[in-house]
């Protein structure tokens, strides 16, 4: 079974960026597994500039990992 | 189709920095897709020193990735 | 004796992500060893968007380490 | 034309550190292009310990990139 | 004389994680050398979720350094 | 003339850690050059747990750079 993260390899940089977002969200979900609570919190932080920037920071760190894994798609 | 991120390779460091900014903004946009909401939030954080410094931090992490991808344009 | 961290090597990326979460929690536990206090704090931060995003950031940094250790499971 | 970032290569570590600061400031400037607004904000954050530490963090990440680009000036 | 940091090399990942914690604490101690003040602050931040997560982040960055130094104990 | 940062190379890990602290402080000093203002701010943040942890984070990032520069003193 593949699970939610079968590989860090993606075909394109864009797919790699989407995977980075998935990792960032999974990092939240593993701490707060309730879909309902996360949906409620989402309503708050998606209109909070600081939280959105912090989210983008987590995506950036994960994208760094995925880009390295893919040899930067060169 | 190329999409928004066809490659991490840029001709110059300056173009790489601009791409780092694009990645940082895309990290926000993927969480808050509404152009209208993001425009409103922008009005707030662009006059908030802490938010601007945090934004620059996200750009710095993304630039690290892009610079590595480009062999530091040496 | 193996202890809590016998190795950074995991069979799959998914197991590596789980190990990254374990490292993040151990980083907290080493500063606050009381199970009771941590359980109480968990009740607070698991409904706090900022804290959840910050947790995901710690996981992201640890995952970067573990992914590198595993040659990105290529 | 050279632009503001012709190269990541510097002659000395010290010049590399100055370039890291330039990148950090450019990360802010690209989000807030108004010299007047940035000057006003500067008056606030240059007497705010948290903002100064956060600024130093951005410089540190950029310096990491530049130091790697320069083979650590070894 | 060995001092407090004779080497980044440790026998096991677990010892490496403990060293990462030591580095994180030393980073605080060098700015606030008073044992008494640090003990007082510890009473505050060890029951503050945000501070504990931030501490875990510092440990994660230091562990990244130590893991690389040890070739990831492979 | 050597300036304040003649090299990233140090004889020992401990000297490398001290250099990381120097870089962190220089990152602040370049934004707030006034010794008097920095001394005043220091009186505030050296008794603030969050600021001390954030400082330790900046040191950790700089130490990562310096450790890599020194081949981890292996």
From TrEMBL, chains A, B, C, D, E, F:
InterPro entries this protein is in?
Hexamer_Tyr-coord_heme_pr_HTHP, HTHP_sf
Sorted alphabetically, which Gene3D superfamilies does this protein's record hold? Hexameric tyrosine-coordinated heme protein (HTHP)
On the tree of life, the source organism's domain of life is: Bacteria
* Pfam families assigned: HTHP
Q: What's the name of the protein? A: Hexameric tyrosine-coordinated heme protein
